[in-house]
Amino acid sequence: MLARTRGGVGVAYLLALASLVVALLAGGAAAARAPSSSARLEVNATAVTRGSGGGGALGFSWHSLPRAAVSPGGPGVFLCEQYVCGQDASTSAWAGLFSADATFEQVGAAEREGWSEATPPWLSSYPVKWVPVREAAGGASFEAEGWPLAGAVVALFINGTDYPVLVARSKPVALLEAAAPRHVRLAIGNGKDSVRVRWNARDACESAEVQYGSQPGKYDMSAKVDAKPTTYDRMSMCGPPANSITGFNVPAYFTHAATMGGLTPGARYWYRVGGCGGQWSAEFAFAAPQPAGAQSTLFAAVVADMGETYSDKEVQWHWAEARAQRSTDGAAAATGPALGRRTHVTEALAKHAASGAGPALTLHVGDLSYATGYHSEWDRFMEMIEPLAASAPFAVVEGNHERDYMGQRGGASWTRGDSGGECGIPTEARFPEAEMWYSFEQGPVHFSMINTEVDMTKGSEQYGWLQKDLAGVDRSRTPWLVVAGHRPMYSATPLGYPLTDGPVRDDVVTSDIEALLYAGRVDLALWGHEHNVMASCPLLNSTCMPKSCTLEGCYDAPVHAVIGNAGQDLTHLTPTNPPFVKYAEAMFGYQTLYADAENLVLSMYGDQAFKLHWNISLSKTHGKSELELHARQQSAR
Fold this sequence. Notes:
The chain is an alpha+beta fold. Residues 1-31, 69-90, 336-355, 495-508 and 625-637 have low confidence and may be disordered.
Protein backbone atom coordinates (compact mmCIF):
# COMPACT_ATOMS: atom_id res chain seq x y z
CA MET A 1 0.00 0.00 0.00
CA LEU A 2 1.08 3.60 -0.49
CA ALA A 3 2.91 5.42 2.26
CA ARG A 4 1.06 8.44 3.59
CA THR A 5 2.53 11.78 2.53
CA ARG A 6 4.18 13.86 5.19
CA GLY A 7 1.57 15.77 7.08
CA GLY A 8 -1.28 13.55 5.79
CA VAL A 9 -3.87 14.29 3.13
CA GLY A 10 -6.12 17.31 3.40
CA VAL A 11 -9.76 16.71 4.34
CA ALA A 12 -10.95 18.93 1.51
CA TYR A 13 -8.97 16.89 -0.98
CA LEU A 14 -10.36 13.60 0.33
CA LEU A 15 -13.92 14.89 0.19
CA ALA A 16 -13.46 16.12 -3.37
CA LEU A 17 -11.92 12.84 -4.47
CA ALA A 18 -14.65 10.84 -2.78
CA SER A 19 -17.26 12.92 -4.61
CA LEU A 20 -15.53 12.17 -7.88
CA VAL A 21 -15.57 8.42 -7.19
CA VAL A 22 -19.28 8.53 -6.28
CA ALA A 23 -20.02 10.33 -9.54
CA LEU A 24 -18.08 7.75 -11.52
CA LEU A 25 -19.84 4.87 -9.82
CA ALA A 26 -23.09 6.47 -10.93
CA GLY A 27 -21.94 5.97 -14.52
CA GLY A 28 -20.71 9.43 -15.46
CA ALA A 29 -17.37 10.32 -17.03
CA ALA A 30 -15.30 13.19 -15.73
CA ALA A 31 -11.92 14.77 -16.16
CA ALA A 32 -9.57 12.29 -14.49
CA ARG A 33 -7.59 14.84 -12.53
CA ALA A 34 -7.30 15.19 -8.78
CA PRO A 35 -8.38 18.57 -7.42
CA SER A 36 -5.52 20.72 -6.10
CA SER A 37 -2.96 17.91 -6.22
CA SER A 38 0.43 18.71 -4.71
CA ALA A 39 2.13 15.73 -6.35
CA ARG A 40 5.21 16.44 -8.44
CA LEU A 41 6.68 14.41 -11.29
CA GLU A 42 10.05 14.98 -12.95
CA VAL A 43 11.90 13.25 -15.79
CA ASN A 44 15.67 13.08 -16.24
CA ALA A 45 15.84 13.75 -19.99
CA THR A 46 14.20 15.74 -22.76
CA ALA A 47 14.87 13.07 -25.42
CA VAL A 48 15.69 9.36 -25.65
CA THR A 49 17.19 7.01 -28.21
CA ARG A 50 14.98 4.14 -29.35
CA GLY A 51 15.89 0.85 -27.67
CA SER A 52 16.66 -0.28 -24.16
CA GLY A 53 19.54 0.55 -21.85
CA GLY A 54 21.86 3.56 -21.93
CA GLY A 55 20.28 6.43 -23.85
CA GLY A 56 17.19 4.28 -24.36
CA ALA A 57 15.90 4.62 -20.81
CA LEU A 58 13.94 7.49 -19.29
CA GLY A 59 14.18 7.92 -15.54
CA PHE A 60 11.47 9.71 -13.58
CA SER A 61 10.76 10.54 -9.97
CA TRP A 62 7.82 11.77 -7.92
CA HIS A 63 7.05 13.09 -4.48
CA SER A 64 4.09 14.28 -2.40
CA LEU A 65 1.82 11.61 -3.86
CA PRO A 66 -1.61 11.63 -2.17
CA ARG A 67 -3.44 8.46 -1.19
CA ALA A 68 -6.60 7.39 -2.96
CA ALA A 69 -9.74 7.97 -0.88
CA VAL A 70 -11.11 4.46 -1.32
CA SER A 71 -10.87 1.30 0.72
CA PRO A 72 -9.14 -1.86 -0.53
CA GLY A 73 -11.56 -3.95 -2.56
CA GLY A 74 -13.53 -0.91 -3.64
CA PRO A 75 -13.58 0.77 -7.04
CA GLY A 76 -10.13 2.25 -6.63
CA VAL A 77 -8.33 -1.07 -6.42
CA PHE A 78 -5.59 -1.36 -9.01
CA LEU A 79 -6.87 -4.05 -11.35
CA CYS A 80 -4.13 -6.40 -12.41
CA GLU A 81 -5.19 -9.74 -13.83
CA GLN A 82 -1.91 -10.51 -15.59
CA TYR A 83 0.48 -12.95 -13.95
CA VAL A 84 3.36 -10.46 -14.17
CA CYS A 85 1.67 -8.40 -11.45
CA GLY A 86 2.63 -10.83 -8.69
CA GLN A 87 1.30 -9.76 -5.33
CA ASP A 88 0.64 -6.15 -6.32
CA ALA A 89 -3.01 -6.49 -7.26
CA SER A 90 -4.08 -4.10 -4.47
CA THR A 91 -1.78 -1.25 -5.49
CA SER A 92 -3.89 1.78 -6.35
CA ALA A 93 -1.28 4.23 -7.71
CA TRP A 94 0.56 3.85 -10.99
CA ALA A 95 2.67 5.70 -13.55
CA GLY A 96 2.13 5.33 -17.29
CA LEU A 97 3.99 6.20 -20.46
CA PHE A 98 1.70 7.96 -22.95
CA SER A 99 1.97 9.65 -26.32
CA ALA A 100 2.75 13.34 -25.89
CA ASP A 101 -0.64 14.25 -27.36
CA ALA A 102 -2.55 12.08 -24.87
CA THR A 103 -5.64 13.22 -22.99
CA PHE A 104 -6.67 11.89 -19.60
CA GLU A 105 -10.44 11.83 -19.48
CA GLN A 106 -12.01 8.83 -17.83
CA VAL A 107 -13.99 6.48 -20.04
CA GLY A 108 -17.10 5.32 -18.24
CA ALA A 109 -18.81 1.94 -18.51
CA ALA A 110 -21.54 3.32 -20.76
CA GLU A 111 -19.01 4.82 -23.19
CA ARG A 112 -17.07 1.60 -23.57
CA GLU A 113 -20.05 -0.68 -23.96
CA GLY A 114 -19.37 -3.12 -26.79
CA TRP A 115 -15.60 -2.64 -26.69
CA SER A 116 -14.34 -6.14 -27.39
CA GLU A 117 -11.00 -7.29 -26.00
CA ALA A 118 -10.56 -3.96 -24.14
CA THR A 119 -8.73 -3.68 -20.83
CA PRO A 120 -8.16 -0.94 -18.24
CA PRO A 121 -6.84 1.70 -17.59
CA TRP A 122 -10.11 3.31 -18.69
CA LEU A 123 -8.80 6.59 -20.10
CA SER A 124 -9.34 8.58 -23.27
CA SER A 125 -5.72 7.77 -24.20
CA TYR A 126 -4.26 4.35 -23.48
CA PRO A 127 -0.76 4.05 -22.02
CA VAL A 128 2.00 2.34 -23.96
CA LYS A 129 2.89 0.68 -20.64
CA TRP A 130 2.63 1.37 -16.94
CA VAL A 131 4.14 0.40 -13.59
CA PRO A 132 2.70 0.23 -10.06
CA VAL A 133 3.74 2.97 -7.62
CA ARG A 134 4.08 1.89 -3.98
CA GLU A 135 5.47 4.90 -2.16
CA ALA A 136 4.55 8.57 -1.78
CA ALA A 137 8.03 9.47 -3.07
CA GLY A 138 10.32 7.45 -5.28
CA GLY A 139 11.59 6.82 -8.77
CA ALA A 140 11.44 4.40 -11.70
CA SER A 141 12.27 4.27 -15.39
CA PHE A 142 10.82 3.33 -18.76
CA GLU A 143 12.90 1.76 -21.50
CA ALA A 144 12.47 3.47 -24.88
CA GLU A 145 10.70 0.51 -26.45
CA GLY A 146 7.54 1.22 -28.40
CA TRP A 147 8.19 4.96 -27.95
CA PRO A 148 5.49 7.08 -29.62
CA LEU A 149 6.56 9.01 -32.72
CA ALA A 150 4.94 12.14 -31.31
CA GLY A 151 7.13 11.94 -28.22
CA ALA A 152 5.98 10.80 -24.80
CA VAL A 153 4.91 11.98 -21.37
CA VAL A 154 4.88 10.19 -18.05
CA ALA A 155 1.65 10.57 -16.10
CA LEU A 156 1.02 9.69 -12.45
CA PHE A 157 -2.35 8.39 -11.24
CA ILE A 158 -4.06 7.31 -8.06
CA ASN A 159 -7.33 5.47 -7.58
CA GLY A 160 -6.48 2.45 -9.68
CA THR A 161 -7.11 1.74 -13.34
CA ASP A 162 -10.90 1.46 -13.39
CA TYR A 163 -11.31 5.01 -12.05
CA PRO A 164 -7.88 6.59 -12.55
CA VAL A 165 -7.28 10.08 -11.21
CA LEU A 166 -4.41 12.11 -12.69
CA VAL A 167 -2.21 13.81 -10.10
CA ALA A 168 0.83 14.85 -12.18
CA ARG A 169 2.33 14.66 -15.67
CA SER A 170 5.80 15.29 -17.04
CA LYS A 171 7.00 17.55 -19.80
CA PRO A 172 7.17 15.89 -23.24
CA VAL A 173 10.17 13.67 -23.98
CA ALA A 174 11.15 13.45 -27.66
CA LEU A 175 12.40 10.43 -29.57
CA LEU A 176 15.77 11.11 -31.19
CA GLU A 177 15.97 10.18 -34.88
CA ALA A 178 12.19 9.84 -34.97
CA ALA A 179 12.26 10.21 -38.77
CA ALA A 180 14.64 7.29 -39.26
CA PRO A 181 13.29 4.10 -40.89
CA ARG A 182 12.23 1.38 -38.48
CA HIS A 183 10.46 -1.97 -38.33
CA VAL A 184 12.51 -3.39 -41.20
CA ARG A 185 11.37 -6.80 -42.43
CA LEU A 186 12.01 -9.05 -45.39
CA ALA A 187 9.47 -10.94 -47.48
CA ILE A 188 9.55 -13.57 -50.19
CA GLY A 189 10.55 -11.98 -53.51
CA ASN A 190 8.77 -12.30 -56.82
CA GLY A 191 11.72 -13.93 -58.54
CA LYS A 192 14.16 -16.70 -57.66
CA ASP A 193 17.01 -14.19 -57.25
CA SER A 194 15.18 -11.53 -55.22
CA VAL A 195 14.01 -10.59 -51.72
CA ARG A 196 11.41 -7.99 -50.85
CA VAL A 197 12.13 -5.46 -48.08
CA ARG A 198 9.59 -3.27 -46.26
CA TRP A 199 9.97 -0.67 -43.55
CA ASN A 200 8.06 2.00 -41.68
CA ALA A 201 8.94 5.66 -41.39
CA ARG A 202 7.37 8.74 -39.86
CA ASP A 203 7.27 10.58 -43.19
CA ALA A 204 6.16 9.22 -46.56
CA CYS A 205 9.02 9.40 -49.05
CA GLU A 206 8.71 8.16 -52.62
CA SER A 207 12.44 8.59 -53.29
CA ALA A 208 13.49 6.24 -50.45
CA GLU A 209 15.59 3.25 -51.39
CA VAL A 210 17.41 0.15 -50.24
CA GLN A 211 21.18 -0.02 -50.68
CA TYR A 212 22.86 -3.42 -50.51
CA GLY A 213 26.08 -5.24 -51.25
CA SER A 214 28.18 -8.31 -50.52
CA GLN A 215 30.36 -6.64 -47.88
CA PRO A 216 29.44 -4.80 -44.67
CA GLY A 217 29.14 -1.06 -45.23
CA LYS A 218 29.81 -1.30 -48.96
CA TYR A 219 26.68 -0.97 -51.07
CA ASP A 220 27.18 -1.33 -54.82
CA MET A 221 23.53 -2.05 -55.60
CA SER A 222 20.31 -0.18 -54.85
CA ALA A 223 16.60 -0.18 -55.59
CA LYS A 224 14.01 2.58 -55.23
CA VAL A 225 10.69 2.06 -53.49
CA ASP A 226 8.21 0.70 -56.00
CA ALA A 227 4.92 1.45 -54.23
CA LYS A 228 3.55 4.73 -52.96
CA PRO A 229 3.89 4.84 -49.16
CA THR A 230 0.48 4.61 -47.55
CA THR A 231 -0.99 4.53 -44.07
CA TYR A 232 -4.40 4.12 -42.47
CA ASP A 233 -6.49 6.26 -40.15
CA ARG A 234 -8.81 5.72 -37.24
CA MET A 235 -11.90 5.51 -39.42
CA SER A 236 -10.38 2.66 -41.44
CA MET A 237 -10.96 0.39 -38.47
CA CYS A 238 -14.14 -1.65 -38.02
CA GLY A 239 -14.91 -0.90 -34.37
CA PRO A 240 -13.68 -0.01 -30.88
CA PRO A 241 -11.25 0.19 -29.28
CA ALA A 242 -9.37 0.25 -32.62
CA ASN A 243 -11.38 3.20 -33.98
CA SER A 244 -11.61 5.04 -30.65
CA ILE A 245 -9.32 7.84 -29.54
CA THR A 246 -8.37 5.55 -26.65
CA GLY A 247 -6.92 2.76 -28.76
CA PHE A 248 -5.78 4.55 -31.90
CA ASN A 249 -2.32 6.03 -32.34
CA VAL A 250 -1.39 7.73 -35.59
CA PRO A 251 0.72 5.07 -37.35
CA ALA A 252 3.81 5.49 -39.45
CA TYR A 253 3.63 5.28 -43.23
CA PHE A 254 3.89 1.57 -43.83
CA THR A 255 4.36 0.45 -47.35
CA HIS A 256 7.81 1.71 -48.12
CA ALA A 257 8.83 -1.34 -50.12
CA ALA A 258 11.55 -2.27 -52.57
CA THR A 259 12.99 -5.40 -54.15
CA MET A 260 16.60 -6.45 -53.85
CA GLY A 261 17.34 -8.33 -57.08
CA GLY A 262 20.32 -9.99 -58.73
CA LEU A 263 21.05 -12.10 -55.63
CA THR A 264 23.19 -15.23 -55.64
CA PRO A 265 21.45 -18.05 -53.69
CA GLY A 266 23.08 -18.64 -50.33
CA ALA A 267 25.35 -15.58 -50.57
CA ARG A 268 25.49 -13.04 -47.74
CA TYR A 269 24.30 -9.46 -48.29
CA TRP A 270 24.34 -6.38 -46.09
CA TYR A 271 21.81 -3.61 -46.54
CA ARG A 272 20.21 -0.45 -45.19
CA VAL A 273 17.00 1.38 -46.10
CA GLY A 274 15.83 5.00 -46.17
CA GLY A 275 17.89 7.90 -47.45
CA CYS A 276 15.28 10.66 -47.22
CA GLY A 277 16.64 13.65 -45.34
CA GLY A 278 19.81 11.67 -44.67
CA GLN A 279 17.93 9.25 -42.44
CA TRP A 280 19.02 5.62 -42.73
CA SER A 281 18.20 2.47 -40.85
CA ALA A 282 20.80 0.38 -39.09
CA GLU A 283 22.66 -2.11 -41.25
CA PHE A 284 21.18 -5.59 -41.49
CA ALA A 285 22.40 -8.79 -43.12
CA PHE A 286 20.74 -11.81 -44.70
CA ALA A 287 21.53 -14.86 -46.80
CA ALA A 288 19.84 -14.93 -50.20
CA PRO A 289 17.25 -17.74 -50.20
CA GLN A 290 18.05 -21.04 -51.82
CA PRO A 291 16.01 -21.58 -54.98
CA ALA A 292 13.08 -23.93 -54.90
CA GLY A 293 14.28 -27.41 -55.74
CA ALA A 294 14.89 -30.85 -54.32
CA GLN A 295 18.63 -30.22 -54.36
CA SER A 296 18.29 -27.38 -51.86
CA THR A 297 17.86 -27.43 -48.08
CA LEU A 298 15.78 -25.19 -45.82
CA PHE A 299 16.13 -24.22 -42.17
CA ALA A 300 13.23 -22.12 -40.83
CA ALA A 301 11.83 -20.82 -37.53
CA VAL A 302 8.14 -21.48 -36.85
CA VAL A 303 6.02 -19.65 -34.24
CA ALA A 304 2.44 -18.64 -33.45
CA ASP A 305 0.43 -16.73 -30.82
CA MET A 306 3.29 -14.49 -29.79
CA GLY A 307 2.43 -10.96 -28.65
CA GLU A 308 5.20 -8.67 -27.47
CA THR A 309 7.43 -8.10 -24.45
CA TYR A 310 8.84 -4.98 -22.82
CA SER A 311 12.11 -5.32 -20.94
CA ASP A 312 11.21 -2.84 -18.16
CA LYS A 313 11.10 -4.13 -14.61
CA GLU A 314 7.53 -4.74 -13.38
CA VAL A 315 6.04 -3.07 -16.42
CA GLN A 316 2.49 -3.93 -17.46
CA TRP A 317 0.69 -3.47 -20.76
CA HIS A 318 -2.40 -4.62 -22.58
CA TRP A 319 -2.45 -8.44 -22.49
CA ALA A 320 1.11 -8.79 -21.24
CA GLU A 321 3.07 -11.53 -23.02
CA ALA A 322 6.16 -11.56 -20.84
CA ARG A 323 7.64 -14.62 -22.56
CA ALA A 324 7.29 -13.48 -26.19
CA GLN A 325 10.78 -11.96 -26.24
CA ARG A 326 12.35 -15.26 -25.21
CA SER A 327 10.60 -17.08 -28.04
CA THR A 328 11.88 -14.46 -30.47
CA ASP A 329 15.40 -14.69 -29.04
CA GLY A 330 15.39 -18.46 -29.37
CA ALA A 331 14.11 -18.41 -32.93
CA ALA A 332 16.61 -15.73 -33.96
CA ALA A 333 19.46 -17.65 -32.38
CA ALA A 334 18.57 -21.07 -33.78
CA THR A 335 21.30 -22.65 -35.88
CA GLY A 336 20.42 -25.47 -38.21
CA PRO A 337 19.73 -28.09 -38.96
CA ALA A 338 17.67 -28.29 -35.78
CA LEU A 339 20.83 -28.29 -33.69
CA GLY A 340 23.20 -25.71 -32.28
CA ARG A 341 23.58 -23.69 -29.13
CA ARG A 342 20.75 -21.25 -28.35
CA THR A 343 21.80 -17.80 -27.20
CA HIS A 344 20.14 -14.44 -26.70
CA VAL A 345 19.45 -12.25 -29.66
CA THR A 346 22.56 -10.03 -29.55
CA GLU A 347 24.90 -13.02 -29.73
CA ALA A 348 22.66 -14.62 -32.32
CA LEU A 349 22.84 -11.64 -34.66
CA ALA A 350 26.62 -11.51 -34.45
CA LYS A 351 26.77 -15.22 -35.29
CA HIS A 352 24.23 -14.77 -38.07
CA ALA A 353 26.13 -11.88 -39.64
CA ALA A 354 29.34 -13.86 -39.57
CA SER A 355 28.14 -17.17 -40.94
CA GLY A 356 24.56 -16.97 -42.14
CA ALA A 357 23.73 -20.02 -40.01
CA GLY A 358 20.41 -18.72 -38.70
CA PRO A 359 16.91 -19.36 -40.06
CA ALA A 360 16.44 -18.66 -43.76
CA LEU A 361 12.72 -18.11 -43.19
CA THR A 362 10.33 -17.42 -40.33
CA LEU A 363 6.70 -18.57 -40.41
CA HIS A 364 4.30 -16.87 -37.98
CA VAL A 365 1.03 -18.80 -38.00
CA GLY A 366 -1.31 -16.09 -36.69
CA ASP A 367 -2.09 -13.99 -33.61
CA LEU A 368 0.91 -11.75 -34.06
CA SER A 369 0.92 -8.71 -31.74
CA TYR A 370 -2.33 -9.20 -29.78
CA ALA A 371 -2.82 -5.45 -30.14
CA THR A 372 -6.60 -6.02 -30.44
CA GLY A 373 -7.30 -2.35 -31.06
CA TYR A 374 -4.43 -0.76 -29.09
CA HIS A 375 -2.16 0.39 -31.87
CA SER A 376 0.91 1.13 -29.76
CA GLU A 377 1.24 -2.63 -29.28
CA TRP A 378 2.04 -2.97 -32.98
CA ASP A 379 5.01 -0.61 -32.61
CA ARG A 380 6.58 -2.75 -29.90
CA PHE A 381 5.84 -6.01 -31.72
CA MET A 382 7.52 -4.78 -34.89
CA GLU A 383 10.51 -3.57 -32.87
CA MET A 384 10.79 -6.92 -31.13
CA ILE A 385 10.75 -9.04 -34.28
CA GLU A 386 13.01 -6.74 -36.31
CA PRO A 387 16.26 -8.63 -35.59
CA LEU A 388 14.59 -11.81 -36.85
CA ALA A 389 12.43 -10.31 -39.62
CA ALA A 390 15.23 -8.16 -41.08
CA SER A 391 17.58 -11.13 -41.45
CA ALA A 392 15.24 -13.58 -43.25
CA PRO A 393 11.82 -13.43 -44.93
CA PHE A 394 9.02 -13.24 -42.37
CA ALA A 395 5.83 -14.90 -43.67
CA VAL A 396 2.55 -14.64 -41.73
CA VAL A 397 -1.10 -15.66 -41.78
CA GLU A 398 -3.91 -13.88 -40.00
CA GLY A 399 -5.37 -15.23 -36.78
CA ASN A 400 -8.59 -14.41 -35.00
CA HIS A 401 -6.96 -11.55 -33.08
CA GLU A 402 -5.94 -9.91 -36.34
CA ARG A 403 -9.11 -10.37 -38.38
CA ASP A 404 -12.30 -11.25 -36.52
CA TYR A 405 -14.94 -8.64 -35.84
CA MET A 406 -18.73 -8.36 -35.96
CA GLY A 407 -20.01 -7.71 -39.49
CA GLN A 408 -16.45 -7.56 -40.74
CA ARG A 409 -15.00 -7.25 -44.20
CA GLY A 410 -13.66 -9.82 -46.62
CA GLY A 411 -16.11 -12.72 -46.52
CA ALA A 412 -14.98 -13.86 -43.10
CA SER A 413 -16.67 -16.71 -41.32
CA TRP A 414 -16.07 -15.43 -37.79
CA THR A 415 -17.99 -12.51 -36.33
CA ARG A 416 -16.69 -12.19 -32.80
CA GLY A 417 -14.82 -9.15 -31.61
CA ASP A 418 -11.46 -10.89 -31.26
CA SER A 419 -9.52 -8.26 -33.23
CA GLY A 420 -10.75 -5.37 -31.07
CA GLY A 421 -12.11 -3.71 -34.21
CA GLU A 422 -8.92 -4.01 -36.30
CA CYS A 423 -10.46 -6.49 -38.79
CA GLY A 424 -7.07 -7.10 -40.39
CA ILE A 425 -6.25 -3.53 -41.46
CA PRO A 426 -3.09 -3.00 -39.33
CA THR A 427 -1.82 -6.51 -40.13
CA GLU A 428 -2.27 -6.18 -43.88
CA ALA A 429 -0.63 -2.74 -43.89
CA ARG A 430 2.50 -4.38 -42.50
CA PHE A 431 2.22 -7.76 -44.23
CA PRO A 432 0.16 -7.24 -47.43
CA GLU A 433 0.35 -10.88 -48.50
CA ALA A 434 -1.63 -11.90 -45.38
CA GLU A 435 -4.86 -10.27 -46.60
CA MET A 436 -6.27 -13.56 -47.79
CA TRP A 437 -4.24 -16.66 -48.75
CA TYR A 438 -1.11 -17.38 -50.74
CA SER A 439 1.62 -19.94 -51.41
CA PHE A 440 5.35 -19.90 -52.07
CA GLU A 441 8.27 -22.26 -52.41
CA GLN A 442 11.63 -22.17 -50.68
CA GLY A 443 14.19 -24.93 -50.89
CA PRO A 444 12.48 -28.34 -51.12
CA VAL A 445 9.21 -27.15 -49.54
CA HIS A 446 5.96 -25.81 -50.98
CA PHE A 447 4.07 -23.73 -48.37
CA SER A 448 0.32 -23.19 -48.70
CA MET A 449 -0.71 -20.39 -46.31
CA ILE A 450 -4.46 -20.50 -45.65
CA ASN A 451 -6.71 -18.03 -43.84
CA THR A 452 -8.87 -19.84 -41.28
CA GLU A 453 -10.75 -16.59 -40.54
CA VAL A 454 -12.31 -16.55 -44.02
CA ASP A 455 -14.79 -19.05 -45.45
CA MET A 456 -13.07 -22.32 -46.38
CA THR A 457 -16.07 -24.56 -46.95
CA LYS A 458 -16.56 -26.47 -50.18
CA GLY A 459 -17.57 -24.05 -52.94
CA SER A 460 -15.91 -21.03 -51.34
CA GLU A 461 -13.24 -19.00 -53.12
CA GLN A 462 -10.56 -20.13 -50.69
CA TYR A 463 -11.50 -23.80 -51.08
CA GLY A 464 -11.18 -23.49 -54.86
CA TRP A 465 -7.81 -21.77 -54.54
CA LEU A 466 -6.44 -24.40 -52.14
CA GLN A 467 -7.65 -27.26 -54.32
CA LYS A 468 -5.88 -25.79 -57.34
CA ASP A 469 -2.74 -24.87 -55.38
CA LEU A 470 -2.26 -28.35 -53.93
CA ALA A 471 -2.96 -30.04 -57.23
CA GLY A 472 -0.35 -27.90 -58.97
CA VAL A 473 2.60 -28.77 -56.73
CA ASP A 474 5.49 -30.39 -58.61
CA ARG A 475 6.74 -32.95 -56.07
CA SER A 476 9.90 -33.59 -58.07
CA ARG A 477 10.75 -29.92 -57.53
CA THR A 478 9.41 -29.47 -53.98
CA PRO A 479 9.04 -32.95 -52.45
CA TRP A 480 7.60 -31.57 -49.18
CA LEU A 481 4.18 -29.94 -48.90
CA VAL A 482 3.32 -27.93 -45.76
CA VAL A 483 -0.01 -26.20 -45.07
CA ALA A 484 -0.17 -23.48 -42.40
CA GLY A 485 -3.22 -21.77 -40.90
CA HIS A 486 -4.23 -20.39 -37.54
CA ARG A 487 -7.19 -22.35 -36.13
CA PRO A 488 -6.34 -26.05 -35.83
CA MET A 489 -8.26 -28.91 -37.32
CA TYR A 490 -7.17 -31.09 -34.42
CA SER A 491 -6.19 -30.17 -30.90
CA ALA A 492 -5.07 -31.69 -27.61
CA THR A 493 -7.37 -29.25 -25.81
CA PRO A 494 -10.93 -30.64 -25.79
CA LEU A 495 -12.39 -27.31 -24.68
CA GLY A 496 -10.30 -25.35 -27.16
CA TYR A 497 -11.06 -23.62 -30.42
CA PRO A 498 -10.59 -25.61 -33.61
CA LEU A 499 -12.02 -24.36 -36.89
CA THR A 500 -15.60 -24.05 -35.61
CA ASP A 501 -14.76 -23.83 -31.91
CA GLY A 502 -15.96 -27.35 -31.32
CA PRO A 503 -14.30 -30.10 -29.28
CA VAL A 504 -11.06 -31.59 -30.64
CA ARG A 505 -12.21 -31.87 -34.26
CA ASP A 506 -14.85 -30.13 -36.36
CA ASP A 507 -16.89 -32.48 -38.54
CA VAL A 508 -18.07 -29.90 -41.10
CA VAL A 509 -15.30 -27.54 -42.13
CA THR A 510 -12.49 -29.92 -41.25
CA SER A 511 -13.92 -32.69 -43.39
CA ASP A 512 -14.03 -30.34 -46.41
CA ILE A 513 -10.43 -29.14 -46.03
CA GLU A 514 -9.08 -32.40 -44.65
CA ALA A 515 -10.13 -34.22 -47.81
CA LEU A 516 -8.13 -31.70 -49.84
CA LEU A 517 -5.04 -32.14 -47.67
CA TYR A 518 -5.23 -35.91 -47.98
CA ALA A 519 -5.84 -35.85 -51.73
CA GLY A 520 -2.94 -33.41 -52.13
CA ARG A 521 -0.66 -35.68 -50.07
CA VAL A 522 0.16 -32.89 -47.61
CA ASP A 523 3.00 -33.90 -45.31
CA LEU A 524 2.64 -31.46 -42.42
CA ALA A 525 -0.11 -29.09 -41.23
CA LEU A 526 0.96 -26.25 -38.91
CA TRP A 527 -1.59 -24.55 -36.64
CA GLY A 528 -1.69 -22.04 -33.80
CA HIS A 529 -4.60 -20.69 -31.70
CA GLU A 530 -4.24 -23.22 -28.89
CA HIS A 531 -1.54 -21.88 -26.60
CA ASN A 532 0.43 -25.10 -26.26
CA VAL A 533 2.21 -27.59 -28.51
CA MET A 534 0.90 -30.82 -29.95
CA ALA A 535 2.10 -33.40 -32.45
CA SER A 536 -0.29 -35.93 -33.96
CA CYS A 537 0.16 -39.22 -35.75
CA PRO A 538 -0.43 -39.18 -39.52
CA LEU A 539 -4.12 -38.38 -39.24
CA LEU A 540 -7.30 -38.73 -41.27
CA ASN A 541 -10.85 -38.60 -39.87
CA SER A 542 -9.47 -38.69 -36.30
CA THR A 543 -7.73 -41.97 -37.08
CA CYS A 544 -4.01 -42.70 -37.16
CA MET A 545 -3.19 -43.95 -40.64
CA PRO A 546 -0.58 -46.60 -41.54
CA LYS A 547 1.78 -45.78 -44.37
CA SER A 548 0.95 -47.16 -47.77
CA CYS A 549 3.43 -47.42 -50.62
CA THR A 550 2.66 -47.25 -54.33
CA LEU A 551 4.66 -46.50 -57.46
CA GLU A 552 4.28 -42.81 -56.53
CA GLY A 553 5.99 -43.40 -53.18
CA CYS A 554 4.91 -43.94 -49.61
CA TYR A 555 2.22 -41.87 -47.92
CA ASP A 556 -0.07 -42.15 -44.92
CA ALA A 557 -1.73 -38.83 -44.05
CA PRO A 558 -0.85 -35.30 -42.87
CA VAL A 559 0.81 -34.95 -39.48
CA HIS A 560 -0.78 -32.08 -37.53
CA ALA A 561 1.31 -29.83 -35.28
CA VAL A 562 -0.09 -27.13 -32.98
CA ILE A 563 2.60 -24.53 -32.21
CA GLY A 564 0.75 -21.70 -30.41
CA ASN A 565 3.22 -21.35 -27.56
CA ALA A 566 5.27 -18.28 -28.50
CA GLY A 567 4.15 -15.93 -25.71
CA GLN A 568 0.44 -15.56 -24.98
CA ASP A 569 -0.87 -17.20 -21.78
CA LEU A 570 -0.72 -20.97 -22.04
CA THR A 571 -3.76 -23.17 -22.60
CA HIS A 572 -3.43 -25.97 -20.10
CA LEU A 573 -4.03 -29.54 -21.13
CA THR A 574 -6.42 -32.09 -19.71
CA PRO A 575 -4.95 -35.23 -18.09
CA THR A 576 -6.02 -37.50 -20.95
CA ASN A 577 -5.13 -36.69 -24.54
CA PRO A 578 -7.14 -37.80 -27.58
CA PRO A 579 -5.75 -41.05 -29.00
CA PHE A 580 -4.23 -39.37 -32.06
CA VAL A 581 -1.97 -37.15 -29.93
CA LYS A 582 1.63 -38.37 -29.84
CA TYR A 583 2.96 -35.44 -27.83
CA ALA A 584 1.42 -32.43 -26.09
CA GLU A 585 2.77 -29.96 -23.58
CA ALA A 586 1.78 -26.56 -22.21
CA MET A 587 5.13 -24.81 -22.43
CA PHE A 588 6.43 -21.57 -23.87
CA GLY A 589 8.84 -21.88 -26.76
CA TYR A 590 9.39 -21.96 -30.52
CA GLN A 591 9.94 -24.46 -33.33
CA THR A 592 12.45 -25.00 -36.11
CA LEU A 593 11.91 -26.79 -39.41
CA TYR A 594 14.64 -28.48 -41.41
CA ALA A 595 14.04 -30.02 -44.83
CA ASP A 596 16.11 -31.63 -47.55
CA ALA A 597 15.08 -33.92 -50.41
CA GLU A 598 14.59 -36.95 -48.13
CA ASN A 599 13.90 -35.60 -44.63
CA LEU A 600 11.73 -33.06 -42.86
CA VAL A 601 12.19 -32.41 -39.13
CA LEU A 602 10.02 -30.10 -37.00
CA SER A 603 11.75 -29.56 -33.63
CA MET A 604 9.91 -28.16 -30.62
CA TYR A 605 11.98 -26.15 -28.13
CA GLY A 606 11.07 -24.75 -24.74
CA ASP A 607 12.22 -21.26 -23.79
CA GLN A 608 13.84 -22.45 -20.56
CA ALA A 609 17.47 -22.83 -21.62
CA PHE A 610 16.06 -23.42 -25.13
CA LYS A 611 15.89 -27.18 -24.62
CA LEU A 612 14.69 -29.58 -27.26
CA HIS A 613 11.48 -31.36 -26.20
CA TRP A 614 10.23 -33.21 -29.29
CA ASN A 615 10.94 -33.94 -32.94
CA ILE A 616 8.52 -34.74 -35.72
CA SER A 617 10.77 -36.63 -38.16
CA LEU A 618 9.44 -37.49 -41.61
CA SER A 619 11.28 -39.38 -44.33
CA LYS A 620 10.57 -39.70 -48.03
CA THR A 621 12.67 -42.83 -48.34
CA HIS A 622 10.89 -44.94 -45.75
CA GLY A 623 7.53 -43.18 -45.46
CA LYS A 624 6.78 -41.17 -42.36
CA SER A 625 8.73 -42.57 -39.45
CA GLU A 626 7.27 -42.97 -36.01
CA LEU A 627 7.43 -39.58 -34.28
CA GLU A 628 10.52 -39.45 -32.12
CA LEU A 629 10.39 -38.50 -28.45
CA HIS A 630 13.38 -36.67 -27.02
CA ALA A 631 13.92 -36.55 -23.28
CA ARG A 632 12.36 -33.36 -22.02
CA GLN A 633 15.46 -32.45 -20.06
CA GLN A 634 17.80 -32.96 -23.00
CA SER A 635 19.68 -29.78 -23.84
CA ALA A 636 19.93 -28.62 -27.43
CA ARG A 637 23.50 -29.14 -28.50
